[in-house]
Design goal:
4 domains; 8-stranded mixed sheet; 11% strand; flat
Amino acid sequence: MKRAIRTHFKDFVAMMALLVVAVLVAGYILHEERLRFPWQSSPFVINASLSSGKAITPGQGQTVRVSGVQVGEVGNVTLKNGVAVVQMNIDPKYKHLIHENASVLLRPKTGLDDMFLEVDPGTSGLPVAPAGYTIPVANTNPPVDPDEILSSLDADTRQYLELLVNGAGAGLQGKGGSELGQVLERFLPTHQDLARLNSVVAERGAALRSLIHSLRVLNAAVAVKQVQVVQLIDASAKVFHAFANANQNVSQAVAELPGTLQQATATLQKVQRFADIVAPATQNLIPAAMAIPAANNATIALAKPATPILAKEIRPFVIAARPLVRHLRPAAINLATATPNLSSVFNVLNHLFNDLGYYPSGGQHGYLWWLAWGDHNARTVFATQDANGDFRQLFLQASCASLSQIAQNIPGSAAVLGISGILADAGTCPAQASTLQSAFARYEQNPRAVKEAPAASALSRGYSATQLFDPKLPH
């Protein structure tokens, strides 16, 4: 064998070189295909529950990032209780980075849904997430496609959005988006202040829940001790009444005290006025105290359905908006500096609205009342429609004398327009009804004379007696 190697030494060296190159190429390919070699340490595995695992494919090199830095890769994806559980293989050197309140966003790198997981490590003061820990759905958000947003809008809103986007494109054309970038850069302090504001709002929300609970406990205790509260109020009223009756004696006693008791004398002289005010006030508090249990029940009915909304909707919104709110304070300070006369403006507006809504007792209605009245009339005018669309209603008004002239001057109008029925109604047109009654009586006595009369010109044109006179008249 040695002799063969010496004989074909060049060929042997070439074969060894090709073998080394093949091993290196194979190792590089396996490394790029994310094959873990035996000498490499095992990854630190945690999971994330997502409401949608869209476009997540194991083995495709989808990464896990923190602040844009890759800290691991996406592993297996399973379905559990209707949610997608995504395995995240974190590099061991980053296993102390992610805490139990971490949040995960599923985001695309390109428009082809090349996904990666963006992780917010959470608060450094909380415990580190152990191996196998699953981040809950409340701390994760899947991507939202533009078609999902557009499908939730009506046709008019989509058209307005299309006009807005086209207008923005026309405005940024030829400028490379530099101006838009500068505008977004100026919003960074606003986002930071909004994050600070949301954190304070979250703390106030927790304090408010504690306050509501304490108020409920207090109201329940007051409701149980209602009789004792009423007795205490009655006893206090009697004590104050006794103080009022003994006011003169107390004044004489205090007048005999030296220096420092003079202020006490002035204070006790005002006790009677205080008692007169407190006595009816405490009596008026009794209905309010009796209504407290019902108010507590209403508060409980409101708090129970609102709890999941605060936990599942408002809390994720606050977490997502926290980076925006952190920079709100400088913007708020600038806003306060820019609006020093805002109170005066609102005072003027208040006076304006008071003038518009002024309704003097027994006088004319205010402007706002007439505005609502006009809106009601305008809505009534266009409240009727047919197959051709909306049409306005028409109201014609005429006196009995005018209708009588129309019937006499326009041949056939009495029968066509139904004027004869109106003129023959004694309750509507008494004078004209009496005239028609007399004319009809003359017609029955001598039809020929009525036909020859000027008032009966319609009959001379071929109309019958029932068309000239109201059919309701006796025949």
